[in-house]
Amino acid sequence: MPTVLVVDDSPTDRIMASRFLEQEPEMIVRFACDGNAALAQIREQMPDAVVTDLQMPECNGLQLVSHVMNEFPRLPVILMTAQGSEEIAAEALRIGAASYVPKRVLASQLRDTVVRILAAASADGRQSSLMHSLADSFLRFEIQNDAELIETLMEHIQGMLRCLPLSDESERLRVVLAVKHAILNSLYHGNLEIPFDVEDLWTPAAAALIHERLTTAPFADRLLIIEANISPRAASFLIRHEGTAFPEETCQAKSVDPCCPKHFTRGIVLMQSTMDEVRILEDGRAISLLKRPSEVSEVVFDD
Fold first, then answer.
1. Considering the chain, what percentage of its residues have pLDDT values greater than 90?
2. On the CB side of 102, how many CA atoms lie within 13 Å of its CA?
3. pTM higher than 0.90 for the full model?
């Protein structure tokens, strides 16, 4: 049974996070009141994942991520962020956090995020050995607007990324999540044309709109085209959609755009902090991602 350590100095927030996580059958939740207490627990009994608040006394979430990456680089850490802390979350992603979930959407996203990260962290060892021998590959998928199929594609790509020398499993996971966010943004805001003023895709109203467009032309007829070139030298991805172009102002700036929906912003922050190059192409209907040994990330619009 997977064990998740929840770290937060607020007893109310700890209980709230645990209730969301315990909706997953057989998940065990433990608690710590700050980063120092969390490190003591981790050293005594290693959990399978850590979910931590950012703002805490003594040792905060950013410091906790740094300590965990130094001592336990294979242990995934997921951040819970308050509104306005996206830039701190981006720094945490740069130093090794697996992902972050805004507190305002914990109810709809925390459990699923942790489950996906736990599944990714327990990838099969024999596949790992095979993928370490991969010399070169080029993949092209033309898929329908199917979120479950995207999950399966991400599992496949994560396995192939084992051929690319990265610092640890946590960094590999962040690359997968960055690609996934690029694909999901292309699905929802590109092909399905869900308006950018819809901040939360998990509300009943947004879910109803998504369901309607998944079964209505022209939205339902559009494809997602994903190309991946993966080798020990680099991993590049090109994601195209056939719907509405991404507006330049939502992606071009390095800082977070306050007018951008939170889930879209989360994806852009993750791409910027994880990938070495992010390029918006084809008048906003394609996004290119590149991962190589480098600490410089940029977002560039190509005419």
1. 40
2. 18
3. no
